[in-house]
Amino acid sequence: MPTIDDVSKVIAGINPGKYTTKKEDYQPADKSGFKKALKQDFWQALKDMGKKYNLKPTSAQEHKLIYQSTSETLEPVYFWILDLMNDLFSGKVEKIVDNFTSSPGSGHFSELMGKATRMQEEAMKILGNANTVIKSIINLIYDLKEFEIRLQHYKDSHSEDKKKAESALLALKQIWMDNVDIKRGRGSINMLAQDLNFVTIRDAFMVAKSVEEVDKMDLNDRVKRILKPRLAEFFEWKKRSERELKKRYEIEKTYLKSQVNALKLYSRWAKPYLKAATQLEQKEVGREPSLVTAFNTILLELTLLGKKQVNFEQAIVDKELPESFKKVKLKRDYYSCVLVDFFFRGIPQKVGQHYVFGGRAEVTFKAYALNDDELKMLEQKLDESDLADALKLVSGTTEESLDELQEDINYFLKEEEEREKEEAEEKKKSGEDVNPFAALIGLTEKKEKSEEKKKEGEDKEKITEIKPDNYVEKLVRKAAENSAISTCFTLFDIYKKAHGMASHPPIE
Questions:
Q1: Is the pLDDT of residue 351 over 80?
Q2: End-to-end CA, the chain
Q3: Distance between CA atoms of 41 and 417, rounded to whole angstroms?
Q4: Residue 15 carries which DSSP code?
Q5: Domain spans of the chain?
Q6: Of the ranges 66-75, 113-122, 273-282, 373-382, which is most confident?
């Protein structure tokens, strides 16, 4: 999981020219080398920022507040600042980092680990049931595909196209001989032709389209006497098997729908448990001296980001920007951003069923001016880090399995008429014949889905490089920075005044 320092480093990596500064005065800084390294390997460059390039992250302005009281809880510090930020940024405040670590010897550690274990056990029980349902869905889909192939023969046998109808009837006769007639043993048509020298009976059976046609064929009476009841039996089987197969097909489709609904329900049940279990995981702190194994201690890290868009037209009216910019249209929006980092070192105290934390709160207020592209890149880079791992784990465990099967599920759960209309429209658009077996296994739908995914990927294309500011954007960024500095100081100053602390002189 990222720490509060990681967010500042990512912003420095996104705009190194603006938000990096020299780390040690006696060594030269290498900004150009750092920028090249960022293009090759962003995360490695951030690791080497201090040692290799003698740079550290900075901001437009920074204020730090340290508040220590073992008798008072830390929650009011956080919520007071959060509520004030919501007022100043019109509710556009989001939590970026939320980490905690308890000392292994504390009661808080034992209780949270017990809760995490219970969440994991419940999640695994539900996922076990979900896996059983997934197996059932896979079997049902394969059964339905086989039914579709078989039913296609019945459907084609009623076709007005004579060649198509004849081909389907031959296929059904072959199925009847291989699955029904074969049970007669030596009395089956295949065995009569092979062992008892009824050479013509098989060909005659395949050619005859009705019982009446047998009398017109050039066959001896013995063959005709055997062939007539067999044909009558075949046509009766064809009529009844079509009816039963359609019934079975509809029953399996209904069962598939119920199984899909059950899987969605299990997924919904499992997600809160998996999410809670990952949120209860503790952050590795390594050799952090504040955390002693036998002590009753907790470390909390929280980061809030507030952003406010610069009103370009209003800034011109307020003389923050030249009047000559009235005819200019901005390609990117700029935002005044304030990052608030909380580092709590607390002593957990159980009150009733819950814990409260008294201790030391270190709050850092940082001002930035960022544009649309930089904010999107910040979000992308944080997603690449461990921050989004919990959500990826949840969605991967409960949703990806269903998504893989969704194409086939959608195909079978659609109404027949709706499918036929869609296939007809596809034929008109493409001007080509649609292979029914390709449609059956969902190949056409997969193509469509892949095209949709491609479009979605283009819409959500990752930002790999941010274009430098032009002359107008530089001035807009400066206005955004001034606003961010003012808001950052306001947050810091109002908190101090509201809590009876010494007031800071206003910044000119």
A1: no
A2: 39
A3: 54
A4: S
A5: 1-57, 122-272
A6: 373-382
**Closest by Cα among 474, 480, 479, 473 to 336:** 480
pLDDT digits (tens, 9 = 90+) for 149-171: 888 888 888 888 888 888 888 88
Q: 269-289 in b/e burial notation, b at 16+ Cβ within 10 A? A: bbbebbbbbbebebbeeeeee
What pLDDT score does 365 carry?
Answer: 94
User: How many other C-beta atoms can be found within 10 angstroms of the C-beta atom of residue 89?
Assistant: 21
- State the pLDDT at residue 388: 45
Mean pLDDT value across residues 368-388: 80
Task: For residue 363, give every residue at least 6 positions away whose Cβ sits within 8 Å of its Cβ, in sequence order, or none.
Answer: 64, 65, 66, 67, 77, 81, 340, 341, 342, 343, 495
Give the helix ranges, DSSP H, for 208-303: 212-216, 221-279
- CA-based nearest residue to 245, from 147, 177, 175: 147
